[in-house]
Write a structure and sequence with these properties.
Layout: H1 2-13, H2 17-35, H3 41-46, H4 56-62
């Protein structure tokens, strides 16, 4: 599960919405299996640009 989390954040930082959606959907499925709640991963999959990690690397490079 941790691997999915880090992959999702990494792709968000690199602004790859398609991969964020893929891994966030997987994270939601795994979380739901174990806790019966998605832990917010479905909202990340639906709109990856609204996460706090979106384009963080790009923002640091501009400074």
């Amino acid at each position: 599960m941790a691997e999915v989390l880090w992959d999702t954040m990494g792709y968000a930082v690199l602004e790859n919405a398609e991969r964020v959606r893929f891994y966030a959907t997987k994270a939601a499925q795994l979380r739901t299996l174990y806790t019966e709640e998605d832990g917010g991963w479905r909202s990340v999959a639906n709109n990856p640009r609204q996460t706090e990690w979106w384009a963080k690397l790009g923002a640091k490079r501009k400074v």
